[in-house]
Amino acid sequence: MKAAFVDPPVPSGALVHRDLFAMNALNDVLGEGGAAGFFGYLKNRGTAMPVLPLLYSASVAREHGAKCAYFDLTTSCCRCRFGELVRFRPDLVLLATSLDLLPYELDFASKLRRLTGAKVILCGDSAAWFSSEILNSGKIDAVINGEPESLVAHLVGGETEKISGLILPGDDSTNVSPSMVEDLDSLVRPAWDLVNFGDYGYFPLIPGRPFATVQASRGCSYGCGFCPYFTAQGKRFRPREVGRVVEELLWLKNNFGVRGVLFRDPCFSYDVHRTKKLCQEMISRDLGISWGCETRLDHIDGELMELMAAAGCRSVELGFDGPSDEVCGLNDRKRIKLEEYKEKVPALERLGIKAALLAVIGIEGEDRERMTKTLEALTNCSASYVNVQVAREFPYTKMFGKFGSERSMTDFYSSDAVRKRLIRERTARNLRERCLRRYYLNPSGVFARMKGGGFIAYSDFLARHAMAYVLRYAERSIGAEGTGDNSCL
Questions:
Q1: What is the pLDDT of residues 146-164, one digit of tens each?
Q2: 206 has which bridge partners?
Q3: Which member of 165, 210, 220, 279 lies 3.0 to 4.6 Å from 197 by CB, making a disulfide possible if both were Cys?
Q4: Do the beta carbons of residue 262 and residue 206 sit within 8 Å?
């Protein structure tokens, strides 16, 4: 049995990272051309990571006798790697999907199935939601609802019938419950030996390379109405044993030379006491790894900040709440008050931990005035970095239901539906673009970030990507869509 684990290509002009949003990734293009487009391009070029559930799945498959390979077709030389994938002649393909590119990914999966004869199975919430229509198309063989590593052992063993979480043609997808890994410590370590570490990084938040991702826990009990993480990973907090996490970090360092790590937990410090133990263990082992995480500010206290800094933490990504209790209530979001940001963000920065604040705007109950107040508050919190995401209707979330959960895949991705969504989001998108342009492109801000993050590293990053952006923009201007490296269809 040969099994291929595939992060499919991204069409020319799109910016998608499928490990983000728990395989519900968005096409995160900030603007078309000019300063906004350049910033969006740089922001996304600094972010590159493999799809961690697929690396876990590859390890599980190998444990059960399969010959495995991981193919990241989002990076340069996509056509070369696609050729390698076809020549690998897999019997089984697990393919990651996203929210915004699902029709494109389905066409790619169909082509791959035709060329290799492999059984092709899609992973991700968007594919699971639209699974009936996808499977009726006859383009692929099955869809996984839940975490693929929880059932891949059955798949490499040739089992397909009555597997929890596997949706087959003719199944009523509403009756197929998601399959989850109950004990994360039961998983073997991800198959990092299958990837090219040179493809990945998380600049500027984590400058250390080689770079890898780690999960110390899954699940988030907060269940915000616009967030896909709790729908993909569940509300139950599933932590790993502290010692096993640290051993994995040491393994990454000793076997692959890893110097930078991003924890992919939805709420890294959900259990504050456990997180303190984890940091203390990292300190005692003297890892020499710089790392970052994402969490909630109300799950960090002064003692934990100091422990995180001593353990090598160099960045923390934090959700940012606007000033309206009403809006947060409408979206099932437990609001963190502005005073807490103004107190704790500078404290993190003083300890050498760069704070990156993320605001989601355009959620239920927000008008232009409320969004403007949120963005004004966001940019006045003394954080090194800010980001703004326009809310989207992720499958299975409360927001998805508000905007028509009964729609078919054809309707959801139709040009008319996309046009209406862009009209609905226009105000939020314009506010986002203006906020980020003002925050990042003023000369004093640029100098401060270059000084704080390393002038040489910033200069090298800008030099490497500025010309690539110019060429990409010129290509699009003359109508040469689909001619980039990632055109595999």
A1: 999 999 999 999 887 889 9
A2: 202
A3: 210
A4: yes
